[in-house]
Amino acid sequence: MNQTPGQLNDQPALFIGIDWADQKHDCHVIDRHGKGFHREIAHSPESIDTWVAEMLKLAGGQPIAIMLEQSRGALVYALMFRKNVQLYPVNPKQLARYRESYPGGGKDDPTDAKYLARMLCERITTLTAWQPDDEDTRLLANLSQQRRKIVDGQTKLRQQLISLLKSYFPLVLELFGKDHQLPLLLSMLGRWTDPRKLRRADRRLIRRVLRDHSTGSEEQQDEIMARIRSAQLLCDDEALITPSAMAAKLLASQIQQSQKTIRDFEAKIAEVMKQHPDAHLFTSLRGAGKALAPRLLCAFGSQRDRWEDADSLASFSGIAPVTKKSGKLCHVHRRYACPKYLRQTFHEFADSARMYCPWSKARYRMLRDRGMKHHAALRKIARSWIRILFRVWQTRIPFDCDRYIAKLQQRCPEITQYLIEGN
Fold first, then answer.
1. Percent of the chain scored above 70 by pLDDT?
2. At the topology level of CATH, where does 5-130 sit?
């Protein structure tokens, strides 16, 4: 097909693949005639600016297209918002599959950059350039992702602390080891990480800590005191207790600091959500809550033309399964090449919604009765939610649960019984 001069100018003049590294980036450049060359870029703002200016000059005022891995956020941030620069983030597993299509199977940074450039050049007509969301949405997305990382880090710290206490101080886990008692456990460890010192501690001081956390009646506090005084030590080895107590004190303080930081993040997320124009579409969902509503909002973003339809988002997020057919054989499995945090967002929301949303609860029970496993049922429900929320997001009309249930009963009368049983 012949292209007009205007259409030709809209096409990228250079196809660039970049393999990211800490100290330097390997890039491979292919022009419209298929000729390529390799460059190295130092990881510094000045080097990246100079390189981009050089590429734009080489392109003669036409756009340049750059493909890089989705996980390389620092490089994406350095290249976004630049005129005539089109970014195409790709899942690392897609690059790995593309690499396997070439003989040899070798892997190094310059070769990966070449494969990225080739894949971009070959598939440019089927790809859509990445467009950043508006500032509020990007802020909300980064706040939510960082909050989740801190929560995951706190979980690891708690597991380390519990494992450590089991090895030398099981009494505090016996008395204060339940999830809702975590603040009390941390307060106790802030004062007494050595079991020998706790057993000799002033009764009034222990009772004050218990009262500060509203722990039991006076009679129950007496029982705790008696248990502390009569408990037998797991061991009395100074070589074990001293370093373990020091490590426990550090872990307890780290968990407390993480909790404070998480509260700060949640306050900032709530503040940004209040001013976001799409917030009401997601905060009204049953089961979304303060943590999942912002994540769902950011999953869709602010670019209404980013997704062709709901199935495109379901496939990209990894919720939609992959079907492989060959002759009479047909195999369906879950999708692995996808952004894990995005898939996790929809999966966790489906799990939460089945406890608070009537149709989700009924659908889950129906799928389980049909023999579907827990996570497979959640992915099925999550895919339905993506279709619903895609419509909500496009029309900006909040989800009406009762109206949806009425239509669902018409399409699937079998679910009526599960709705009745769920009430």
1. 96
2. Nucleotidyltransferase; domain 5 (3.30.420)
